[in-house]
Amino acid sequence: MSTEVQNPQINSAKIPVAGNIAGAIFALGAVAICFTGLPLVRVMLPAALLLGVAIAVVLRFGRHKKVGAPWIPK
Q1: Could you tell me the CA-to-CA distances from 42 to 34, 69, 72, 73 in Å, in that order?
Q2: Which of 16, 40, 48, 66 has the most other CB atoms within 10 Å of its CB?
Q3: pTM reported for the whole predicted model
Q4: Is the CB of residue 35 less than 8 Å from the CB of residue 45?
Q5: Do 60 and 53 touch, CB atoms closer than 8 A?
Q6: Would you call 29 helix, strand, or coil by DSSP?
Q7: What angle do CA 67, 51, 33 make, to 5 degrees?
Q8: CB distance 12 to 30 below 8 Å
Q9: What does the pLDDT profile of the chain (74 residues) look like in tens digits?
Q10: 53 vs 70: CA distance, rounded Å
Q11: Structural contact between residues 26 and 17, judged by C-beta atoms closer than 8 angstroms
């Protein structure tokens, strides 16, 4: 007989979630749990979103001197 004790646990990686409304609710719920549980996220999430949008705008409207030239100078 096995002496190992069974601990039933919910593993969110094992829950099948499709790309429909149930999947969106699950994803938004997970974000809400992290957002309310970690106070630092309340400050960092809006800052990260603003920084990401700013970088996307710069990359979108930035011009190359030559088509096909590397973006990062050496």
Answers
A1: 9, 39, 33, 36
A2: 48
A3: 0.42
A4: yes
A5: no
A6: helix
A7: 130
A8: yes
A9: 566 677 777 777 777 767 788 788 888 888 888 878 888 877 888 899 999 999 988 888 876 667 777 767 66
A10: 22
A11: yes
Contact 35, 41 (CB under 8 A): yes
> Which residue, among 50, 70, 53, has the nearest Cα to 61 in the 3D structure?
53
Q: How far is CA 40 from CA 30, 49, 51, 52, 63, in A?
A: 16, 14, 16, 18, 36
Residue type, 23: G
Give residues with Cβ within 8 angstroms of 1, minimum separation 6: none
**Residue-wise over 6-18: b if at least 16 C-beta within 10 A, else e?**
eeeeeeeeeeeee
**Residue that has been written with the tokens 């699950």 in this structure:** 26
